[in-house]
Amino acid sequence: MKSRKLIPITDERFPLLPRMIATSLGAGYLPVAPGTWGALVAIVIWLPLYLWLPGTPAWIITTLAIVALAVSGTWASTESEKYWGKDPVVACVDETVGQLISMLPLCGGPETAPWWMIAVSLGLFRFFDIFKPLGIRKLEKLPGGVGMMADDVLAAIYSAIIVGVIVSLI
Prior knowledge:
Elements: H1 16-22, H2 34-52, H3 55-84, H4 93-102, H5 116-131, H6 136-140, H7 144-169
Helix pairs in contact: 1-3, 2-4, 3-4, 3-7, 4-5, 4-7, 5-7
């Protein structure tokens, strides 16, 4: 369960690089629903791939971004707990990674997946991330950044499966 305590934007004790990674470039500091802001960061950085690249290159770049962000985000999230306590709400890189995963089935671009499916992927991912059904909550109990990242990855996988099915039917 995420810690809800307020975190100052300027926390000199916590080094800048892991702080920027953990907060998805500061999105976690935005008021109300920092996890949703973290997911929106993923959409903003991914949108050019959706609009301008064909399926396979977009999928490869998205997958590489997921791996890089998951590894660096797990490290940064673990670091964030040292300064801010267990699973701090401002550490939203896990939501950024999760949203990227949930959009993998949309990598064919507007020709294969209409733009509104991005909103569907966001809604599904946030549903699974918030309510944590189907074993997601168990992963949250893993230690440090691994637990912070793992529950969002599983929520995103469930979302991606549903998004993929919807895309195949339209």
